[in-house]
Amino acid sequence: MINNLRARLQPTPWMAWLAFLGIFLIAGVIGGVMVLSDGLSLTNLTDLVPWGLWITIDLSSIALAAGAFSLCAAVYLIGLKRYEPIARTATFVGLIGYSMAMLCLFMDIGRPFKFYQAFIYWNTHSLLWEVTMCIALYFTVLLLESMPIIANLKWLSSRYPKLTAKMSKVHHYAPYLAIAGLFLSSLHQSSLGAAYGVLKARPFWYKPEMSVLFMLSAIIGGISMTLFTSMLASLLTKRAKIDDKLIEKLSLFVGWALVGYFYWRFWGTLSMTYTYEPGRTEGLELLTKGPLAFNFWIGEILIGIVVPMILLLNRKTRTNRFWRMSALLMVVGGLVAYRWNINLAGALVVLSYLPGQPIVSYTSYTPSFVEWIVGLGVIAFGFLVFSLGVRYLRVVDHHFVEKEHIPVDVKAAEAATV
Amino acid sequence: MSNKLERRGFLKVAGASIVGLAGLQLMRPSKVSSEDTASGERQWAMVIDQSKCTGCGHCTLSCRAHNDVSPGISWNEVLPAGKVGEHQVFIARPCMHCENAPCVDVCMVGASYYRPDGIVMMNYDKCIGCRYCEVACPYQARSFNWKEFDGDNPAVPTWGQPEIERRPRGVPEKCSFCYQRIDRGLEHGLTPGVDPAATPACVVTCPTGARIFGDLKDPESEVSKIINSQHTVRLRDDLGTAPRVYYVLAKPDDFKEVEA
Prior knowledge:
The complex is a heterodimer.
Chain A: H1 2-9, H2 13-38, H3 53-64, H4 67-78, H5 84-108, H6 117-120, H7 127-150, H8 154-159, H9 161-169, H10 174-197, H11 209-236, H12 244-270, H13 280-288, H14 293-313, H15 315-319, H16 321-347, E1 349-351, E2 360-362, H17 369-392, H18 405-417
Antiparallel strand pairs in A: 1-2
Chain B: H1 2-27, H2 31-37, E1 44-49, H3 58-66, E2 77-84, E3 87-93, H4 102-106, E4 112-114, E5 120-122, H5 132-136, E6 143-144, E7 172-173, H6 179-187, H7 201-205, E8 211-215, H8 222-229, E9 245-248, H9 252-259
Parallel strand pairs in B: 1-9
Antiparallel strand pairs in B: 1-8, 2-3, 4-5, 6-7
């Protein structure tokens, strides 16, 4: 008995990893409770910069979850069946991303315990209404899509075999779910950009391409996130089995998609350099010369787009696992930098409303300690769920094919021949 | 085989109809909502005469008292606005009560809404505190309740008595043209803008009479007369928000008369 316990408490890398995440989780929970009891005055947010670190984490986790809808659409709608195992990983990553986003939003809104009112009172004209609805519905879709994955939990299937059998059967509806996912995601991934893009009061944001850029970067970042986490998991544990060829193929797609994204980003930025426009010009200056310049040139452009684009398009570096993983991680980092930059470049510029041409002034924002610990706690939560998924649900197993799908196909084929 | 086709057809129709429905809702032009705004028989508006404003800040304080606003927040801010001639001038800024209010457009729960008399109102019960309205407002007219406002209001009773409920923590609050005074006044047969008890507190308290309040639809109201006879400006008119607060800007001549 005692020996057994000892063996269980042996410090394994897994335990160390859990302990490491646990520190951040506990800190995050403490920070979260502090914010719930004392309110948002614990943050460094102001009336001029009401959205900060948490909105960045929220936007980034939603964007990085976009691999789920893009890959599910590719597999079940376009018919690229061989990517199904990766779509499975992506679905789980997506589920985590949206949970993180909802946790973050819960902390971020002024009256967290009234969040349900977002579903009761509708202003259908508001982009955030649409985003809220889509996120809630898409989370449901992701939950359904994850049912066959969760059914793999041995603890569950040994106790409730009938339940898990039913859960696995949800996979039969994968194409329908993929359609719902594609529809909902295309809407809210773009709308999150448009939520900024429709604000006339903030000239740096006020442009139509915000939605396009958010959508494109989300697809690229989301797929990269899925591929990166899969590769990372396979490095760290034998439970994760990847199909390197599939990942390499998708990485090539990411490389080309980056070219397209770069094209949009380039013209979107360049066109802003012409003719002084109060607020917009200053926002761009913050980005290219001011406090956000490092994030922009290095984080977003160089590391986020140019370097991974070259690494992924070049066959030698793409086939090399180290370089491919680095490139995918860079894309993920670049996406986070983009969300952070775009939020702040618009918010830090303050336009006067006095008569005459608006006078521009600047404000500043650095996240407070509580914002950091809550933010890191949310991220740790994401890592924890992914790790548990890899360990207990075979989330990263690219040789794994869902059982339900094949018999259904066979039956259909039989019926056709009869 | 036919089974598959049916499914595909169904999916197409279903997909198209969902996209169509959602698209119709989202693309509904905001004009629809602003038609509601101008529907009332009265349209409240304010004129602020810059040449009379001395920047004393009495309006801010009496607003705090009558609306029970936290000392850290101003619904009604008075800002220095440069010099005209040798005189320092000011701009007092309540909520603009825009006809095309960006805050109403973006609010996801419809907590910001138009009253038929044009007042842009907040339903604090609906609000969940996402702060999108704050980001959307070009006039910084909204202040978020970062902290709970408990304890005494230092502006009470010197500047008046609270007439409305204090807002909870976690909602952005703003000027309401003292709707409570207007509504109660009308019930008692008073005329807002004429009878002090039915007029916004800031207008009543202004020692120099720099603020004028009244009904835009009544051509005989003081605000209509000024707007029709004098040159007035609205802040950031270029944005198309169509504010209901009009400013008579100070000219160097205004101050010569005072001195002479």
